[in-house]
Amino acid sequence: MPAPWIFLIVLALAAAGYLAGRLRALAVVGGDIRRLHSLPGYYGWQAAMLAALPALLVMGLWLLIQPVVVESRVEGMIPEAAQGASLSLVMTDVRRVAEGLDLAVSTGVMSAAEATGLSADGTIRATLGKLGVALGSGVTPEVLAAAKALRTAEATGRGAMAAVVLVLALAGVAYALWRIRAEYRARNVVEAGVRGLLLLASTIAILTTAGIVLSMLFETRHFFAQYPWWKFFFGATWSPNFRGGSDLGILPLLWGTLYISFIALVVSVPIGLFAAVYMSEYAGRKFRMVAKPAIEILAGIPTIVYGLFALITVGPLLRDYFAQPLGLGASGSSVMTAGLVMGVMLIPFVSSLSDDIINAVPQSLRDGSLGLGATRSETIRQVVLPAALPGIVGAVLLAASRAIGETMIVVLGAGAAAKLDLNPFEAMTTVTVKIVSQLTGDTDFAAPETLVAFALGLTLFVLTLGLNVLALWIVRRYREQYE
Amino acid sequence: MNDMRLEERIVQNDKIKIDAQDVQVFYGDNHAIKDVSVAIEDKTVTAFIGPSGCGKSTFLRCLNRMNDTVAGCRVEGRITLDGEDIYDKRVDPVQLRARVGMVFQKPNPFPKSIYDNVAYGPKIHGLVRGKAEMDEVVESALKRAALWKEVKDRLQAPGTGLSGGQQQRLCIARAIATAPEVLLMDEPASALDPIATAQIEELIDELRTRFAVVIVTHSMQQAARVSQKTAFFHLGNLVEYGETGQIFTTPRDPRTESYITGRIG
Ligand SMILES: Nc1ncnc2c1ncn2[C@@H]1O[C@H](COP(=O)(O)OP(=O)(O)OP(=O)(O)O)[C@@H](O)[C@H]1O
Ligand SMILES: [Mg+2]
């Protein structure tokens, strides 16, 4: 039975549980709901919850774990000799064949018995090819055997899952109905269930983050097994070479990232902050109603469009009117181009966050200052901004982590040449751009030139995570001040 | 000759500091103050009393143009300070507020140190030279606001960390450090214990020797204790204005009488 069906059946059982729970609660007190501890609906809900939640939870876990278990079993079946190039390539073939057989059975090209009884002759490739499943090479007996084992193991697993999940759902309903008494606190049970559900939602987000970090860590370890970490962290040259002997120093990339982000912040922080101050302290209601959404439109422009703007307008402009006359180079793509355009992109970030924060400063503080005969700008400088400062710093740090993670504007605006240079009119590049370029095209996931992408990604992650944590911490401290 | 001089001095003492004529205040369509005319004398404590929502704070805020900062608030009529129309185009409201200081109904210390809170006004108006003089100003303002003893060891601690009553006294210290000519106080003692209240009342009495004080209060006893003149507001109207003693002993309007004896409020 396919998983969506099981899911629907569980939901149907939960719905039935709801109705049955309600009815049973009413029956227990003979229709006099004042004698029930909770409203009848709560008895229904607790039955529905007991039916659906454990069953669906088990189903979810099962779906996650089964492939891992099955594959590791099947991998064990493949003899050393057949592994040839690498186990993962063989396993890809095994999976393809298994999928092809599934498809053949489901479209009626083969009967189920035929598929299990298949022997490794030359026809399999042709048969599957007709179904649109292309196999790279002929199917060896080992691969076919493994594919068959994969199919049986998966079929057993699915069958077992269907049985376990449905039994759990039924047991849940039965237990819930059995528990119903007049004094049974269904309302509190539902409350606890809702809490659990909410907790589950938040743990999923956290677990995902943890999963991302773990997978990065895993690949990064592979990288450092092949490439010394000190050369990665302290190397000043970046020249990957897929034939080996690459220099994979992160410093030029880190330098480019920080340089471009710095310029972007130098542009966006003052403009964004001043715009926010004007919006919240000086602008009339009408102006604000028009200007605020207009500024926020900037935030909705896809970064690739900013990239194009950098490439065809800002880059040549800077080159022709600044770089060349000043003798600072003739490159169309430059740190300055990317930094300026990224700065424009970040203006709405800084301005709308700061605007909210400035608006959160109580009016009574402004009154206090104005009441002492301070002017508006004195009030802003000496009372409003200091009060909002932690929040503004938080906004700036969030903008900074956006800048560090930006890719498109850099590729199109600053180029892809890794360089350690002070001249802002030179082409340079950033960590993110290099991650993309190391992973595009034909890649071999065993070579350090590819694996370095994960080390770069992890470094970037740690950097932005650090900034975000700092920002959150500062913003939180600020919140406490006024509550 | 002698008689002439004596007459002059009496006029000096009864000098009108703020004169409000036919003041109307609107919040959008809400007519909050209706036809109020009051003459506030210099070197006198004037108390505004009246039930909640009758417009005491609103009227008080007209006297230093704090209503300018409220969107949708409109003030009509004529208010003069030393004979000069404060709503005239040539008058700078910022300058005006330095002369007519204000203590608000809710304490609103700045998120700065206690010292900087008090030093704020003198600093922006350039009233002192040098650190030593500023220290003196801060100390004397805190002493007069009856806060010095509690904070003298933690002048650098944040003002927002004080208790509600201490914050209110800090705001009073902040206002008097700016050396205004008129001090408007909106329920300055509503968050204070009896001891601090007594100290503030003493301060108000002392301030009277130098400038005009206008105080809004919900405490009849307080109005009777500290003020020389009392104005009773009701539903946006000024019902009665006169000598405090007269208002409390022989009110002319029945509404005043019911209010001070506790029948409306
Ligand atoms: N910012 C404002 N916007 C709109 N209406 C206001 C505003 N401030 C006050 N009002 C209205 O003006 C009227 C007078 O309010 P005001 O604050 O002056 O009363 P009050 O006499 O000071 O009362 P309390 O003793 O409770 O402080 C009230 O009806 C109030 O709703
Ligand atoms: Mg009030």
Strand order of the largest sheet of chain A: 1-2
Number of domains of chain A: 2
Strand content of chain B: 25-35%
Distance between the termini of chain B: 52 Å
Ligands and ions found = adenosine-5'-triphosphate, magnesium ion
Order of helices and strands of chain B: HEEEHEEHEHHHHEHEHEEHH
CATH superfamily of the largest domain in chain A: MetI-like
CATH class of chain B: Alpha Beta
Count every beta strand of chain B, where a strand is a DSSP E run of 2 or more residues: 10
Return the domain count of chain B. Answer: 1
What would you call the structural class of chain A? mainly alpha
As for the CATH topology of the largest domain in chain A, it is MetI-like fold
Query: Which range best describes the helical content of chain A: under 10%, 10-25%, 25-40%, 40-55%, 55-70% or over 70%?
Result: over 70%
Structural class by sheet pairing and helices of chain B: alpha/beta
Helical region count of chain A?
18
Q: Architecture of the largest domain in chain A, according to CATH?
A: Orthogonal Bundle
By CATH reckoning, the class of the largest domain in chain A would read Mainly Alpha
**Sheet of most strands of chain A:** 2 strands, antiparallel
CATH architecture of chain B: 3-Layer(aba) Sandwich
Secondary structure: elements and pairs:
The complex is a heterodimer of chains A (483) and B (265).
Chain A: H1 3-28, H2 40-77, H3 80-83, H4 87-107, H5 112-117, H6 123-130, H7 141-179, H8 186-226, H9 229-234, E1 238-239, E2 247-248, H10 251-282, H11 285-300, H12 303-323, H13 335-360, H14 363-371, H15 376-405, H16 408-414, H17 431-439, H18 448-482
Antiparallel strand pairs in A: 1-2
Helix pairs in contact in A: 1-2, 1-7, 2-7, 2-8, 4-7, 8-18, 10-13, 10-15, 11-13, 12-13, 12-16, 13-15, 13-16, 14-15, 15-18, 17-18
Chain B: H1 2-13, E1 16-27, E2 30-41, E3 45-49, H2 56-62, E4 73-81, E5 84-85, H3 93-99, E6 100-103, H4 114-124, H5 130-144, H6 148-151, H7 164-177, E7 182-186, H8 194-207, E8 212-216, H9 220-226, E9 229-234, E10 237-243, H10 244-249, H11 254-260
Parallel strand pairs in B: 3-8, 3-9, 6-7, 7-8
Antiparallel strand pairs in B: 1-2, 1-4, 4-5, 9-10
The structure holds adenosine-5'-triphosphate and magnesium ion.
